[in-house]
Specification:
The protein has 122 residues and is mainly beta. It is built from one helix and eleven strands, in the order βββββββββαββ. The strands form two sheets. Strands 2, 4, 5, 6, 9, 10 and 11 form a seven-stranded mixed sheet that branches. A four-stranded antiparallel sheet has the order 1-3-8-7, with no helix packed on it.
């Protein structure tokens, strides 16, 4: 499933950004959706995932209540609201999709979009 992430940019520490990921096709509601990030020189890191209906959500340990994942199946879009951003949150953020319900927990996804860069200045 083609995925298009957007919403990244430059923000000061303490600020907020909302990332969006639009999916093509009419089967968006059949996919678990996730967000990952990768900073230069570091491994890709799980950020959040949401089930088909939105009833099951999982976050990476570093999130600690500052990020919120949500989805609008009518718009074929998943969102990541990021608040209280810190310089260490600087990374390319990627959205991903998978048909397996367990992806919410395993963080294993088959389909990936391109990244959107988030830069947090101190």
């Amino acid at each position: 499933v083609p995925l298009q992430a957007s919403g990244g940019g430059l923000v000061q520490a303490g600020g907020s950004l909302r990332l969006s990921c639009a999916a093509s096709g009419r089967t968006f509601s059949n996919y678990v959706m996730g967000w990952f990030r990768q900073a230069p020189g570091k491994e890709r890191e799980f950020v959040a995932a949401i089930s088909w209906s939105g009833g099951s959500i999982n976050y990476g340990e570093f999130v600690k209540g500052r990020f919120t994942i949500s989805r609008d199946n009518a718009k074929n879009t998943v969102y990541l609201q990021m608040n209280s951003l810190k310089p260490e949150n600087t990374a390319a953020y990627y959205c991903a999709a998978d048909k397996r319900e367990g992806a919410v927990i395993t963080g294993t996804f088959d389909y990936w979009g391109q990244g959107t860069q988030v830069t947090v200045s101190s």
